[in-house]
Design brief:
By secondary structure, this protein is of the alpha+beta class. It is built from 9 helices and 20 strands.
Amino acid sequence: MSRLLATALVVSLLTGCGLGPAAQSTQQPSSIATDVAPTAVAATPTRATARSATPSSSPAQPSPNATDSPTSSASPSGELALAKADVARLPAEPGDAKLAAEAINRFALDLHRELAVEGENLVFSPASVAVALGMARAGAKGQTADEMDDVLYAVASEDHANWLNALDHALADRSGTFEDDGGAEHELTLRVANSYFAQDDLEFERAFLEVLASRYGAGVHLVDYKRDPEAARRLINAWISDATEERIPEILVPGDVTNQTRLALANAIYLKAPWQMPFQEELTTQEPFRLGDGSEVEVPMMHTSGTVRCSRGEGWQAAELPYVGNALAMLVVVPDDLAAFEAELDADLLNRVVDSLAETEARAELALPRFSTEARAELTPVLQALGMEVPFSPDEADFSGITGDERLHIGFVIHQANIDVDEKGTEAAAATVVGMDTSGGGPAEVCDIAADQPFLFAIRDVETGAILFLGRIVDPSATG
């Protein structure tokens, strides 16, 4: 069976103070919110009240010249409505997608340096985090915007406002039916979705809603946090669960959403991607994997052979394992010393590794352990350490581009991700919650690579180079 890859992201804007308890819950969402197309309404002033949006039961295509207030539509559950500025999705310049990828990759390596802990596996989605913060950046001003641009390498700045839109357009072309190296046909599916969940009587800046629609394709679901925050939490979770094929059933736990919540921004990425060169299950055997301290554990080691892009450098070797269609791939880097390599790892080193792969296509014998890992982190101190301080300040943050009703600042950023890799392909998921409070050529050689010691992996879009998932495996036998 083909493996799945899913990414989810939620950005929550809240009023009040503090983050609720992060205890795990086994309760499943009871209903699902469904996006609908925007409908045309009459033009309004520069601010729009979500509650006053005109309901419509017949979706229509947006007008390219409209600058209207959001419209709303009831969901099948009857508990959620959708609002969306009536503007068309902006076209994209192909070169902007690569510029977005470069910025995201630099941000990815910054996060990796902060999140990597000696002796522990790691997985996260820099693309998911960047998109969520990028949507929040659309409403930031002044020093708040400047610091977000610095940390995000300007991927969502006003000067580069269409970069993420261009990357989204590029990724939308990756799905299709493709043959693997054995001639078997497989479906590869990559879907990206963005949405907002807003307090139904909160006024939004019209320009902000237009950015969400034209650059992110996002509508705003209308909910009532004040009256029933728990119902809103379940509905947001249900949307994420549906968008990620139930890979992330409960991104928000009880206490995350309160009656002080005002807005939640959500991104979800779903990928179903079989290997182009599948590993043969009958060749998988229990073999030793050398840990960082020199000891060994027995793990199921997968094996395959074929022509791949691979390379060696001083203290490392690398190979790129494509998924069907060759548009997406997993980059595997096996350093002689993981800690030493990570200490030097930056965008320039990563680019040198990737560029060297293009120079060497060889017949390879590959060994890769089956692995599963997950990670959960509070990113607030990480982002502050990287220089994003004012956006977290109740007194200094300026998100007045979102709403003038209440002064918002970022209260917390929580990220969670998991990944499973086996002979068929990859299954992974990631989710982020950002809570905002108010203060008011032909083969030339043989290239054998065995990932039988700690290694790095990156699931990346080949054309743009964008890293969708990044992580490290120091012990494949550890599942947490």
